[in-house]
Amino acid sequence: MSGGLLTALAAITLTFFALRLAAGDPVASLLSQGLTTPEQAETVRRSLGYHLPILQQYLFFLGNLVRGDLGVSLYSGQPVSAIIGSQLASTLQLALVSLAIALPLGILLGSASSWKSRPAAQRSATTLSGLATSLPVATTGVISLLIVSLLARGQVRGVQLWLPALVLGFAASGPFARAVHSGLESTLSSPFILAAKARGLNRTRRMYWHALRPALPAAIALIALEAAFLFAGAVVTETVFSRPGLGRTLVSSILQADFPVAQGIVALAAVLYVGSQVVADGLGWILDPRLREGR
What is the pTM of this model? Predict the structure, then answer.
């Protein structure tokens, strides 16, 4: 828990200083675009504390963050919490559909990669799970768009949800496949599996009814940790597919130097990361008797 909190604080701190070092004064950007007058710019700068030294700005930001005050957007004037709330449902929809694809796909690939009696299926599953783990979401997203557009002759349907969800779900299935494969490798040689074989049970039943059940707790516990990955993947996926959501909003706020919006979304991601760690530890303890027994 403490490690997760330190990681969250580090992410928030890094974002705060990186934005200011890279983009400079965001109010000056508003002024250069003719979106405000010099008098209004100075008022905005002072109201947001941008006239203070950077360390004081950081302490001012942390104080507001602790109180739940994320500030307002420099461009729209809307509260950051309202902007996040308006985009959250779209990102959650993408993440949940992607997770619904990733979990069964990961279990299927992980179990098939342990099926040594069928080498062709084993090699195919191992290759696919390796690609899911190694290929960036941006790469698979662009490739999938190209393939679908060629097959549909430019009339692409379902791009707003199902194609992004398939891309993100495929990427997220890699860790599930590795967890299932690792669990199966340790249980397939266990005495109870050998006893099931001696009773005459076929390999399919031994694999999916006896060996897979002890391997599932580790994969299910990954669901919570995958929440952080799905949020990070949504940033890329929503940008590639021009889909509305928190990821695309984060990218646009960084490009516009809209500090409050970018900082608010990163803070939400950091809280999600800490919460996912707590839930993952809890799920692992509930589902795996070995953890409860201290082994």
Answer: 0.77
DSSP assignments along the chain, one per residue: -HHHHHHHHHHHHHHHHHHHHHH--HHHHHHHTTSS-HHHHHHHHHHTTTTS-HHHHHHHHHHHHHTT---B-TTT--BHHHHHHHHHHHHHHHHHHHHHHHHHHHHHHHHHTT-TT-HHHHHHHHHHHHHHHHS-HHHHHHHHHHHHHHHTTT---STTTHHHHHHHHHHHHHHHHHHHHHHHHHHTTSHHHHHHHHTT--HHHIIIIIIHHHHHHHHHHHHHHHHHHHHHHHHHHHHHTT--SHHHHHHHHHHTT-HHHHHHHHHHHHHHHHHHHHHHHHHHHHH-HHHHTT-
Evaluate whether 10 touches 17 at the Cβ level (below 8 Å).
Answer: no
* Class of the CATH-defined domain 84-245: mainly alpha
The vertex-151 CA angle with 147 and 152, nearest 5°, equals 115
Amino acid identity at 294:
G
Q: What are phi and psi of 125, to 5 degrees?
A: -65, -40
Helix or strand (DSSP H, E) at 285 = helix 259-287
- Give residue-wise pLDDT tens across range 97-146: 998 899 889 888 887 887 766 778 788 888 998 898 888 888 888 888 88
Query: Which residues make beta-bridge pairs with 79?
Result: 72
